[in-house]
Amino acid sequence: MIAANTPVLHPDLTPAQRDCLDALPLTGNHVVDGPPGSGKSLLAAHRAVHLSLTGHPTLLLSRSNLLRQLLHGTLQGLTVPGAPVEVATVHGWVLRHFGRDAPRTEDGWFDWTALTHRAAAALGTDGEKDADGAATPHLVVDEGQDLPPGFYRLARLAAASVTVFADECQRLTETNSTLAEITAALGRAATRTGITGNHRNTREIAALAEHFRTGGLRPVPPTRSGPLPVIRHYSGERDIADDIAAMAARNPQHRIGVIVSSLRTAAGLMRRLERAGLAYEPRLYSSAAPSGRYRDIDLARPGIVLVHRASAKGLDFDTVVIPDTETDTAADPTSASLRTAYYVMITRAREQLVLGWQGSRLPRHLEGLQERVQTR
Questions:
Q1: Which burial class, exposed, middle or buried, applies to 40 when counting CB atoms under 10 A from its CB (0-12, 13-18, 19+)?
Q2: What InterPro entries does the annotation carry (predicted)?
Q3: SS3 177
Q4: DSSP annotation of 12
């Protein structure tokens, strides 16, 4: 997917974001870390545009296809004629660079060691071309904490430069990396810098997210205020759908993200919401769909989007509803994986947040939050 329009560099960036971007050299490997809402995805898009002006092909990569779509939208109006930026998933880039026969491991993911050996063997021979004959690209990676160190060892050999935007407090995949591991894999000369601030959440949403954060320095709190997050008991699927439809009716221009733990739940809610007579047709994203209405989503459009937790990384919505928190009742409420999942989901919300549950008892991981939420 290529974005190529009239350049508008640095629109709406804060001084700190501009300073971070301008301090990055156009050569070498770099890691930029920042908390949710600090603008990493926006900076990744700007960084890709800057690198494209060097004359090398430039790719903006993500692990998630839904985030790829969001990044493509962000690039609209930023890219420069004659210096386009391509947006792709890591999966798509590997297949294009090494061909459809790229070796894989038993779990279906790529064999990063074998690919690194192949890239090393190509250096000095055909090392400046990929499988399609394209020149060695600059790579910019968003949400880089969800990729393994082996990917970065490969990228170091296969790219002209690598710039990674990441937050290790948002590691959700099983094949992830810490910031130290990313930096080490990119080589001794790789630099590491940070961006602070939270320009997405309200103070109230950020305070609830802080309860679930698993490590790192405490982020700078947002300055913007809003309503307290809500913990709401639902009697069933119909009650959930009616509540979401009412939110959409009250705020017809809001983007409402419904983040669920299973696509079965999403499908059931989708059927009910489609019959609710909403101003905008609800949408459901499925990573398993090859194309079409369940694969290609306009995330900038108002209305309801139902998405699985695994695809929520990097997204943001005016309102976020997590309707099925009871599905985590059996999990250890202190476990890092559970806390990280909720940290990521909660920080998707710009204005309003609802944590829903069904059953006779409040899920354990939502206990003790009285000062941070209101209950209904």
A1: buried
A2: DNA_helicase_UvrD/REP, P-loop_NTPase
A3: coil
A4: T
DSSP helix/strand/coil, 320: strand
Q: How far apart are CA 99 and CA 92, in angstroms?
A: 10
Report d(CA 110, CA 103) in Å as an integer: 6
pTM for this predicted structure: 0.91
How far apart are alpha carbons 336 and 321 in whole angstroms?
Answer: 22
- Residue 336 phi/psi, 5-degree rounding, is -65, -40
- 276-328 per-position pLDDT tens digit: 999 999 999 998 888 888 999 999 999 999 999 999 989 999 999 999 999 99
The pLDDT-based confidence of 4 (bands split at 50, 70, 90) is: very low
Map tokens 């947006």 to a residue.
Answer: 87
DSSP-derived pairing of the beta strands 85-89 and 58-62: parallel
The torsion angles phi and psi of 253, rounded to 5 degrees, stand at -95, 0
Task: Quickly state the pLDDT bin for 362 (edges 50, 70, 90).
Answer: very high
Contact 142, 61 (CB under 8 A): yes
* Residues near 349 by beta carbon (within 8 Å), at least 6 away in sequence: 201, 205, 229, 257, 316, 317, 318, 319, 320
- Residue 218, Cβ neighbours under 10 Å: how many? 8
Hey, what are 221's tokens?
């709190």
Q: What 3-state DSSP class applies to 3? A: strand
Separate counts of helices (H) and strands (E) for the chain: 11, 14
- Candidates 112, 72, 117; CA nearest to 91 is 112
C-beta separation of 136 from 127 below 8 A: yes
Give the C-alpha separation, 219 to 222, whole Å. Answer: 9
User: Tokens representing 116?
Assistant: 């690194």
Question: Within 10 A of 122 (CB to CB), how many other CB atoms are there?
Answer: 16
| CB burial readout 89-105, b (16+ within 10 A) else e | bbebbbbbbbeeebeee
Report the chain's terminal Cα–Cα distance, integer Å.
44
* 315 alpha carbon, distance to own chain's centre: 5
Contact 273, 106 (CB under 8 A): no
Phi, psi at residue 293, to the nearest 5°? -65, -25
CA-to-CA distance for 139 and 60, rounded, in angstroms?
Answer: 6
| Other Cβ atoms within 10 Å of 232 Cβ, number | 18
